[in-house]
Write the structure tokens for this entry.
Amino acid sequence: MSFFIEASLAEGGAKAPDIISQLMVFGGIFLIFYLLFIRPQNKKMKEHQAMVETLAKGDEVVTNGGVLGKVVGLHDGFVTIEVSPDMNINIQRSAVAAIQPKGTIKGIKN
């Protein structure tokens, strides 16, 4: 007569968990990971891809490295950015982090 262990468990009469219930638990965990991590990341990736595709000459952009410049040329996988008069740099399109509002460069100059 045990107060903590039921007689059927002490005698080894416990059933193994059902395979369907185990699959439901794993499915639920995957669903939670999908909703919290995978789906938002895919949404951000699609938004960034759309932003990169809509780049045009004259846009003021910030790169992933923090460089602020004006788009002066567009190529297949690269963008030419003017960071100061007579200084252009070529970067990959995917390195563009954000498009800034017009006049941002003039607004930060002293």
